[in-house]
Amino acid sequence: MSRARADEEEYWHSSKFRAFTFDDEDDELSQLKESKRAVNSLRDIVDDDDDDDLERVSWSGEPVGSISWSIKETASSSSSSLEGRDSSLQKGSSSYAAFPKQVSSYSLSNLFKGRNKLPSFQSLSDALSDTGIKNYAPELRRPKAEYKDYSSDWSPKDTVRRMQRGKVCSLERFRSLQDKLVLLDEAVAGHDGNVITAVLIFLKRTLRREILFRELEVRQVALCHLIHFLKETGEQKFLLDLLRFLDRTEEVALSQYREHLNIQDVEKRREFLKVCIGLPFSAEDTSHIQDHYTLLERQIIIETNDRHLETAGQSEIFRKYPRKASILNMPLVTTLFYSCFYHYTEAEGTFSSPTNLKKTFKIPDKQYVLTALAARAKLRAWDDVDALFTTKNWLGYTKKKAPIGFHRVVEILQRNNAPVQVLQEYVRLVEDVETRLNLATKYKCHDVVIETYRDLKDRIQLTAYKCKVERGSAEEEKINSILNN
Amino acid sequence: AIVWDEYLTGPFGLIAQYSLLKEHEVEKMFTLKPGRLPQADVKNIIFFVRPKLELMDIITDNVLREDRGRSPQRDFHILFVPRRSLLCEQWLKEQGVLGSFIHREQYSLDLIPFDGDLLSMESESAFKECYLESDQTSLYHAAKGLMTLQALYGTIPQIFGKGECARHVANMMIRMKREFPGSQNSIFPVFDTLLLLDRNVDLLTPLATQLTYEGLIDEIYGIQNTYVKLPPEKFAPKKQGEGGKDLPTEPKKLQLNSAEELYAEIRDKNFNAVGSVLSKKAKIISAAFEERHHAKTVGEIKQFVSQLPHMQAARSSLANHTSIAELIKDITTSEDFFDNLTVEQEFMSGIDTDKVNNYIEDCIAQKHPLIKILRLVCLQSVCNSGLKQKVLDHYKREILQTYGYEHILTLNNLEKAGLLKPQTSGRNNYPTIRKTLRLWMDDVNEQNPNDISYVYSGYAPLSVRLAQLLARPGWRSIEEVLKMLPGPHFEERQQLPTGLQKKRQHGENRVTLVFFLGGVTYAEIAALRFLSQMEDGGTEYVIATTKLINGTSWIKSLMERLEPAPF
């Protein structure tokens, strides 16, 4: 077990946390650096080999003496020697994590230290309990029979109260509907969900459905508890009957739709989703469920085809970029990316073509362009990227347009390691001058920087920029010629 | 031997160490998991579990696989925390193992002390149960906990509350007191006032990113039962000659509470004020160590040596917090953190809450974690008293298309909880609430705060503002706003015998217990502590809650558990 735990922690460490780098030149951090330096220098003064942590920590990083630590300890030593046990005992008693010091003048911690030590302490359950039954650690084993309460003269109120105190009561003697309902109302008035549920279990077993439903309809609290209980125990059919009876149609629909998550087989899942479309969702949700079904249907077709293509080894794109996972059950945008990656040039008529997906699911332009851009950039298909932003007007002139703003285009291209020639073409198209300058400087698109300063007639900046370009390069020449004009 | 429900080990660790259990003859401890129980030479096996059906299945499995032929036979017992569940017992009965348990009892653990002024029930699903499933069991436990507290610290004479759940808890307390007159005690009351607050009165605060030191640690790394696990790189021992060849790979685990002097000082500060404290401390400690050069006489040396342990503790504490501060700084100085915060602050100050936000769209397009998206969208919805239908539909569509249609279930839950909803009344109440309660402060002082708004660098948590205004000048001054917030507000009095009525000395502080039903964040706690420390405040606060939360853990508790995609 401890092995498994270690693996888990390793996983945590390796995936969740990345190494952070500490920027030495950052002025804002100087204060932290200073205290760090001070701390480190102090290590020389007090050179002790022991770790100086405030608390003792075992190898696993758990503080020694904590429960979770000792569980591990026990687990690792349980099968083996006595020695292990001794050492755990020793370690276990050697430290006792300090209780937090009180900020406020009132300590709350003695609330939980042994109750017998405080004579004034009188807990509620002690004070109220008529049998003096202990809540924990019973000293003596009592016969099981004592737990059952065969006395039959408890009123509904007393029964509920006894149950609240954690005792088992027989409910069987509440025979008439009247009695049962009084019992339920008492339970509800006590607000203890545990008791309410217990009574509901009893009622569910002993009442006809129609009667139970009818009575619960006017008892909302109890109703909520029953619904919760049914969800918890997975009695789906009973739950749906109840919701239908109550005319809570949208809940019926959602609850039924939730079921699809438990269906592993894709074909069966698809069939199930098809049925879900007809459920009484709100208009907006119905269209989402419809889309969900259509998407899965599409994915099954694409998956079958592509798996075939891949194994046949005829298609270059699949050979060059083997698929990492199947496309089944992936979100729509992921599917679109996939199709832009593997099926970009297909005609609109095929199910796997991006344009077909775009049309079927009414994917907004913005989303489409972003996804297509990311996919094509990943493949370094710069012509496709270019085409994505080129529009022709009615005179036949071409114009560059992007529904997402060219600064975003630049970011995505840069993330996919686009060469400077490609990058600068789009940096140039960024409208806002300041953003353009920032991006151009950041990604070393010298031409764009130079041209922008030229247009701004900013001699000072242009002169300053000279030191950023390589000596004797074409860029330097360009700067010089501008400055000389 | 004890078999632990793993979730319980954290909270239990705060009240009972293994050594204590050992003293009470606990031989061995295991975590609950399916399969056969480990071998152990013990007679009694006690299961410590929360009353959850999935845990009952594991126990059933344990019991059924137990070797019947072994001798001596082991006896099984079950202890439910915090309450025995008849549903669970029914479940065990159906599996045919109920009879195997000799004792079935409960351990009524309601409120667990987390710090000198902080109690939590650590009931992770309390908010979901109360607001999604209308299951008030956790409220019943809260009321029970409050009764126990009163048994210890005296009857609280005044009860104020806001919200449906608060109303329920107050009713239950009054009822319990009436039904059990024996609970009347003769303890001089410690608390003057109890303030019960529903989390859904203030849905806004947990959604915003906390900016106190402790709040940020929780936002970034998650504090579990006062412990935090940190990436180990920054904690590598830097001793000469080692050159960092063996970087530790285990996460560094630290306990965080006010027992640590330095942490007590900086935990509630705005993160921007932490750096200067740390560097000041560093100078003081350096100076203290320098003292040894001036120690001439034996007496002086002896005194220096006697202080060493304390100084070393202070030094290692400083080292730890400097490292943590560095880790956090790396994140808070990142571009994305800044952009996210900017959007949050725009929403909270009421800017552009009624249209689709570009940054949120960008985050969806870049597939940032879904919880982050949901936090922002919910924040926008709350700051606009619901989103315009068109805006809501747009977000919904984008989220479903990018993260998968099955999240329609989660969106539905958020809608039910009131976090994400269409604007129905056609009116946005938030600006009125913001102005009346002064929720947004433009001139915030992070270094030397003069107002609680420092905990979110501008936004003053609504919940804490309500507590502050209750103390002075009283809620009557904000009746209008209280009516805009969900649920009733009320006041109850509990009669005290004349001998116990407090005669207040001049200048003596009143003590208020604030109980957050449905969870509280570290930043809110910081704000209440700030109010306690205000010189002319006149009120000290003790805080209790069903669960310590942050926006992420909170939203997560409302998300539909989705089965992993079948691959």
Automatic annotation (TrEMBL), chain A:
One record GO biological process: vacuolar transport
Keywords: Cytoplasmic vesicle, Endosome
Annotated Gene3D superfamilies: Vps16, C-terminal region
GO cellular component terms listed in the entry, alphabetical order: early endosome; late endosome
First-listed, main subcellular location of the protein, grouped into a coarse class: cytoplasm
Subcellular location(s) of the protein: Cytoplasmic vesicle; Early endosome; Late endosome
Transferase keyword on record: no
Region (Disordered): 41-60
UniProt protein name: Spermatogenesis-defective protein 39 homolog
UniProt xrefs under PANTHER family: DEFECTIVE SPERMATOGENESIS PROTEIN 39 (PTHR13364), SPERMATOGENESIS-DEFECTIVE PROTEIN 39 HOMOLOG (PTHR13364:SF6)
Domain of life from the UniProt record: Eukaryota
Automatic annotation (TrEMBL), chain B:
Example of a GO cellular component annotation carried by this entry: autophagosome
InterPro entries linked to this entry: Sec-1-like_dom1, Sec-1-like_dom3a, Sec1-like, Sec1-like_dom2, Sec1-like_sf, VPS33_dom3b
Biological process terms in GO annotation: protein transport; vesicle-mediated transport
One Pfam family linked to the record: Sec1
Compartments it resides in: Cytoplasmic vesicle, Autophagosome; Cytoplasmic vesicle, Clathrin-coated vesicle; Early endosome; Late endosome membrane
Principal place of residence: cytoplasm
Keyword Transcription: no
Cross-referenced Gene3D superfamilies: 1.25.40.850, 3.40.50.1910, 3.40.50.2060, Syntaxin Binding Protein 1, Chain A, domain 2
Topology in membrane: Peripheral membrane protein
General function of this protein: Plays a role in vesicle-mediated protein trafficking to lysosomal compartments including the endocytic membrane transport and autophagic pathways. Believed to act as a core component of the putative HOPS and CORVET endosomal tethering complexes which are proposed to be involved in the Rab5-to-Rab7 endosome conversion probably implicating MON1A/B, and via binding SNAREs and SNARE complexes to mediate tethering and docking events during SNARE-mediated membrane fusion.
Family assignment from sequence similarity: Belongs to the STXBP/unc-18/SEC1 family.
Annotated protein name in UniProt: Vacuolar protein sorting-associated protein 33A
Gene designation: Vps33a
